[in-house]
């Protein structure tokens, strides 16, 4: 039994195609508005006019693909008043729809926008690490969907040995808040400020 | 006019409402509805229709009643039977990605992709892109065409009436006969279409290999076309230089020291595992080449693994190359030995006979040619927007860091001067002597390895005339005026009749993907010119709305077929097995053609006694003759997928020529690389071109209408290009909710321009010119050059009552103005203005 499963993401390989996002939606039959895995574009840089109508630029861009981080210190579990949100022995954070009263505290508490409210059912939903696939020895739908092989999973400790210990790059919040079970290979242009205010809000549910 | 708002104009009002309601249904309801409808029509049709009284009622009113009927009639069907079949995403991105479809009780419930093998580079899984993963919503879509229909309103109005298949086939056969008798077969045209691509029997492209082509070839032929909306200019121009458009396969970048991409963006154009981008990433990581991206946009390809972005103004690639060539020549950095041995036209010492002095490339660059203008970096800087010092740096790096992989996408060539740009970019590989080398390049689009599945035979077309794929509106309006030297007519000197019958099987290039949507709609409203338009498709597209007869096709998930594609240095083929029964009253195209052939008295000739499955068996046997390891039919059907690595490793284009140019001549007239093309020189002297258009023997920079220096900029100051978008393959998937959510339609605006116009990210913006106006959200970004907008192409044209396109289709703004040589689509050459909506 794993102690803490985690995701790996390589920001130098991601092309922002969102195959992970849509494979997740297909696997979990998610309606529009629910994106358990989502991809955020980060871009910036400036333009400077040069002589004769020419230009110089420092423009850059990269993408970050995010599911639930299955945090070691999950704020969603901490604030849940009914015990519906729990952390399993293998580290996967799951929500029990039977126990959930739809108060949405977890949504408010999570800095990654992972728990998402299902209006029709009145309960929270979230990435469950494709626990059924993992139990069958398969990888989650998002990981096996990635055309660039930018995603992977594993025992968090093993991922850190293999890929290092970076767990925050812009636009993600500081890792010390919830200790996310993620290992990132940063893009050459990404900073690791952990500045939550920089979240890109234009693509889906990150709030 | 809203896509999907088709209705049965003569049906009772209640019917109308039912249809609208249906279009508003949630996806889940829709899936249930169509599945139940299909179950109904297949399993209890007889029982139920006997009770209610006929097919028409069944299709139009019987859905809910039918459900109960099924449940009661067939309780044995209640236990879900699960199966998984191999399928493919068969649309026009250049890939044919494998999909594994899980089906429960005749309903697609899960879509996965290639999961075979260990997924090691070279033996990797061919993973589908995001679009393939959303395919359930394309199959179960409110826009699905359900039954044959005929137009009842004005053409293009979108008013249709349900008819029987008998009536549809009779009408089409009758019109074919009438038009053939009156005008001859040259009046019958099969339009460019790529919505069902890569199949063996059910395939729309190339048009000469579709079942429609076989049908028409059995009936005296049809007017051909050449070229494509994807590659017109490069396909027409590059053979004048090399005799072909080949380039090294992209895995060869592992052997390169430098990679230079001009508008080459596989991360957005070929972003799947069956495409190029994964392959490119892995190969690049195995080498140590620096990468340079020359593009008006910071594309997602430039994002992967970084590299340097050199933004330039659209349509000015040839000016940039000329500026670089000036530096290379004046600093003695060109590969003179290569130029002397392998090329003609570089300098005055290597020119064809009887060409005036100072006509060589070197003379053009140094300002000794007709325009007396040295193509200095300063000259190029002003045109391209790239600083002169950067141009000089690029030149020095490209000339000295070898081998260099230089490749171009198809964006640079999709311009009014695209033929010139395509050949100009190739000059970099030529001047630096990179052609035919490992790790080198020709400057064309990257190559790949595929396996060749045998073709469904479509016989020979007795009609010799062929027009550019792009000029069909002219052929409708003034066919007999069109000539070889003015309109690029091939096979004959001139056309004899206008197009009177237009076949459009699985394509959206009547309106959405052709230029100037508003202009084309207006032209086609006149049904006295083109007298019959037959559209066969899955969805109610803007092109389908122009139909006189509209036939509902099955998707590839509702029929058996075979497809093949490339996963980089690995070819593959898939037996795409029928996953679910045909939905509604949809039929396979082969059956439609057979029925029409029957009415024309040519059924036996058309079928040769074969069913679709018989043809698939025929194709497998024919393939096995070429590829002995290819599985037999039954094995292939069972295993689903067959992969084969390139036995030669990488493709090195023109290697044989490089090794021995005497024994292995190119197919150009001289057998050498033709920097100066004598054939183009003759064309430049004999063709009649519109004022301002040029064809040149050398690859030159040609300023154009609506280019970066056109005087029209005083009225429309912004250059507008389009790019391929993750939401769609051209217009396919444009009506899929998950894709609209993943990649919403938007217009890219540089941050400085947005500030100037008072536009913020997400604001609705009106983009307009004399041809039309679109409204769409702004993406304010540093990722595009100032003065340039980009609207991802393929969004569905949706003009409102005032004619404003609320769908954001880029072709509402593009010009129908054929390029000089290819007579192709200059869809990235546009000037526009914008304002906050």
Topology:
The complex is a heterodimer of chains A (207) and B (837).
Chain A: E1 5-10, H1 19-28, E2 38-44, E3 47-49, E4 55-57, E5 60-66, H2 75-79, E6 85-87, E7 93-95, H3 105-109, E8 116-118, E9 123-125, H4 131-135, H5 141-145, E10 151-155, H6 156-163, E11 182-185
Chain B: E1 7-8, H1 13-24, H2 27-43, H3 45-52, H4 55-61, H5 63-73, E2 82-88, E3 98-104, E4 107-113, H6 130-133, H7 136-139, E5 149-151, E6 159-162, H8 165-183, E7 188-190, H9 211-217, E8 224-226, H10 232-242, E9 258-262, H11 266-269, H12 277-286, E10 290-294, H13 300-303, E11 308-310, H14 317-330, H15 336-342, E12 343-344, H16 361-366, H17 377-384, H18 388-400, E13 404-408, H19 418-431, E14 466-468, H20 472-478, H21 484-487, E15 501-505, H22 517-524, E16 532-537, E17 549-552, E18 561-566, E19 570-576, H23 589-600, H24 603-607, H25 612-626, H26 633-639, E20 641-645, H27 655-659, E21 673-674, H28 678-686, E22 718-721, H29 737-742, E23 747-750, H30 751-757, E24 764-769, E25 772-781, E26 788-790, E27 831-836
Parallel strand pairs in B: 1-6, 7-15, 8-14, 9-10, 9-13, 10-11, 12-21, 15-16, 16-17, 22-26, 23-25
Antiparallel strand pairs in B: 2-3, 3-4, 5-6, 5-17, 18-19, 19-20, 22-27, 23-26, 24-25, 24-27
Commentary on this structure:
The complex is a heterodimer of chains A (207) and B (837). Chain A is α+β, with helices and mostly antiparallel strands. In chain A, the strands form five sheets. A three-stranded mixed sheet of chain A has the order 10-1-11. A two-stranded antiparallel ribbon of chain A has the order 2-5. Chain A contains six helices and eleven strands. In chain A, strand 3 and strand 4 form a beta hairpin. Chain A has a domain of 127 residues: 2-Layer Sandwich (Alpha-Beta Plaits). Chain B has 837 residues and is an alpha/beta fold. Chain B folds into four domains: 70 residues, no CATH class; 201 residues, Rossmann fold; 234 residues, Dimethylsulfoxide Reductase, domain 2, CATH 3.40.228; 126 residues, Barwin-like endoglucanases. Chain B contains 30 helices and 27 strands. Chain B has a seven-stranded mixed sheet. In chain B, strands 22-26-23-25-24-27 form a six-stranded mixed β-barrel. In chain B, strand 5 and strand 6 form a beta hairpin. In chain B, helix 14 crosses helix 18 and helix 17 crosses helix 18. The longest helix of chain B has 19 residues. Chain B is globular and about 75 Å long. Classes of the chains: A alpha+beta (207), B alpha/beta (837). Chains A and B meet through helix 1, strand 4, strand 5 and helix 5 of A and strand 4, helix 12, helix 13, helix 17 and helix 29 of B.
């Amino acid at each position: 039994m794993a102690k803490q499963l985690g995701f790996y993401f390589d920001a130098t390989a991601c092309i922002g195609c969102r195959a992970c996002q849509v494979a997740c939606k297909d696997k979990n039959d998610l309606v529009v508005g629910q994106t358990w895995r989502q991809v955020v574009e980060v871009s910036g840089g400036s333009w400077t006019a040069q002589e004769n109508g020419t230009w110089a630029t420092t423009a850059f861009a990269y993408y970050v693909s995010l599911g639930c981080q299955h945090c070691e210190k999950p704020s969603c579990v901490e604030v849940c008043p009914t015990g519906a949100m729990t952390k399993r022995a293998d580290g996967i954070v799951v929500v029990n729809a039977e126990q959930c009263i739809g108060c949405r505290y977890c949504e408010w508490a999570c800095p990654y926008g992972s728990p998402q409210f299902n209006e029709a059912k009145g309960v929270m939903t979230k990435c469950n690490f494709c626990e059924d696939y993992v139990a069958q020895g398969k990888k989650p739908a998002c990981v096996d969907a990635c055309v660039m092989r930018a995603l992977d999973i594993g025992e968090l400790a093993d991922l850190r040995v293999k890929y290092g210990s970076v767990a925050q790059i812009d636009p993600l919040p500081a890792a010390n808040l919830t200790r996310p079970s993620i290992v990132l290979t940063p893009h050459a242009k990404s900073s690791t400020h952990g500045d939550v205010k920089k979240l890109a809000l234009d693509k889906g549910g990150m709030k | 006019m809203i896509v999907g708002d088709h209705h049965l104009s003569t049906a009772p009002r209640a019917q109308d409402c039912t249809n609208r309601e249906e279009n508003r249904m949630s996806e889940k309801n829709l899936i249930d509805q169509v599945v139940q409808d299909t179950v109904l029509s297949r399993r209890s049709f007889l029982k139920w229709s006997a009770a209610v009284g006929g097919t028409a009622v069944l299709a139009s009113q019987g859905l809910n009643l039918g459900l109960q009927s099924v449940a009661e009639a067939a309780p044995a069907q209640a236990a879900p039977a699960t199966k998984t079949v191999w399928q493919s995403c068969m649309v026009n991105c250049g890939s044919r990605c494998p999909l594994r479809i899980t089906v429960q009780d005749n309903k697609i419930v899960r879509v996965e992709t290639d999961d075979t093998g260990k997924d090691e580079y070279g033996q990797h899984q061919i993973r589908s892109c995001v679009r393939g993963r959303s395919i359930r919503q394309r199959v179960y879509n409110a826009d699905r065409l359900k039954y044959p229909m005929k137009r009842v309103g004005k053409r293009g109005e979108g008013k249709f009436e349900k008819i029987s298949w008998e009536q549809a086939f009779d009408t089409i056969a009758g019109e074919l006969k009438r038009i053939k008798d009156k005008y001859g077969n040259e009046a019958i045209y099969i339009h460019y279409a790529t919505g069902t691509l890569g199949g063996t029997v059910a395939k729309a492209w190339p048009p000469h290999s579709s079942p429609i082509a076989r049908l028409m070839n059995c009936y005296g032929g049809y007017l051909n076309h050449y070229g494509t909306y994807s590659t017109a200019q490069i396909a027409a121009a590059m053979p004048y230089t090399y005799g072909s458009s080949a380039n090294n396969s992209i895995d060869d970048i592992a052997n390169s020291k430098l990679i230079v991409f001009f508008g080459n963006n596989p991360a957005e154009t070929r972003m799947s595992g069956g495409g190029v981008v994964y392959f490119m990433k892995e190969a690049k990581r195995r080498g140590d080449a620096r990468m340079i991206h020359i593009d008006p946009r910071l594309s997602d390809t430039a994002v992967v693994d970084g590299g340097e972005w050199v933004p330039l103004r659209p349509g000015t690639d040839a000016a940039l190359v000329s500026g670089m060539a000036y530096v290379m020549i004046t600093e003695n950095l060109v590969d003179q030995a290569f130029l002397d041995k392998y090329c003609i036209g570089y300098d005055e010492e290597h020119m064809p006979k009887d060409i005036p002095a100072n006509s060589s490339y070197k003379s053009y660059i140094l300002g000794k040619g007709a325009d007396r203008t040295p193509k200095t970096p300063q000259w190029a800087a002003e045109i391209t927007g790239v600083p002169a010092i950067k141009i000089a740096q690029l030149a020095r790096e490209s000339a000295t860091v070898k081998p260099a992989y230089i490749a171009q996408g198809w964006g640079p060539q999709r311009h009014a001067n695209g033929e010139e740009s395509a050949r100009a970019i190739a000059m970099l590989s030529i001047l630096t002597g990179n052609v035919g080398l490992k790790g080198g390049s020709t400057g064309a689009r990257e190559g790949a390895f595929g396996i060749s599945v045998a073709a469904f035979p479509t016989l020979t077309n007795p009609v010799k005339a062929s027009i550019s794929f792009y000029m069909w509106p002219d052929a409708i309006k003034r066919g007999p005026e069109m000539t070889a030297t003015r309109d690029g007519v091939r096979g004959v000197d001139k056309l004899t009749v206008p197009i009177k019958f237009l076949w459009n099987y699985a394509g959206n290039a009547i309106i959405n993907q052709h230029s100037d949507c508003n202009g084309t709609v207006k032209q086609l409203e006149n049904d006295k010119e083109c007298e019959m338009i037959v559209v066969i498709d899955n969805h109610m597209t803007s092109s389908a709305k122009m139909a006189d007869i509209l036939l509902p096709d099955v998707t590839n998930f509702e029929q058996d077929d075979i497809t093949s594609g490339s996963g980089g240095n690995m070819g593959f083929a898939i037996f795409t097995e029928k996953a679910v029964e045909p939905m509604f009253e949809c039929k396979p195209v082969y059956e439609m053609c057979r029925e029409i052939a029957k009415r024309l008295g040519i059924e036996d000739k058309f079928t040769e006694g074969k069913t679709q499955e018989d043809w698939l068996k025929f194709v497998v046997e024919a393939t096995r003759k070429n590829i002995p390891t290819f599985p037999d039919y039954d094995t292939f059907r069972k295993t689903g997928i067959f992969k084969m690595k390139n036995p030669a490793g990488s493709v090195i284009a023109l290697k044989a020529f490089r090794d021995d140019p005497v024994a292995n001549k190119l197919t150009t007239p001289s057998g050498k690389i033709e920097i100066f093309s004598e054939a183009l020189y003759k064309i430049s002297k004999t063709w009649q071109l519109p004022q301002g258009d040029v064809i040149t023997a050398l690859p030159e920079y040609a300023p154009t209408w609506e280019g970066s220096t056109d005087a029209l900029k005083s009225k429309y100051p912004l250059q507008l290009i389009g790019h391929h978008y993750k939401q769609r393959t051209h217009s396919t998937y444009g009506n899929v909710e998950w894709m609209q959510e993943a990649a919403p339609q938007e217009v890219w605006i540089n941050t400085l321009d947005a500030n100037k116009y008072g536009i913020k990210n997400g604001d609705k913006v009106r983009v307009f010119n004399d041809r039309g106006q679109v409204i769409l959200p702004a993406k304010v970004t540093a990722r595009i050059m100032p003065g340039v907008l980009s609207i991802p192409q393929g969004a569905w044209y949706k003009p409102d009552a005032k004619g404003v396109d609320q769908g954001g289709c880029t072709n509402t703004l593009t010009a129908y103005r054929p390029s000089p040589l290819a007579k192709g689509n200059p869809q990235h050459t546009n000037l526009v203005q914008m304002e906050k909506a």
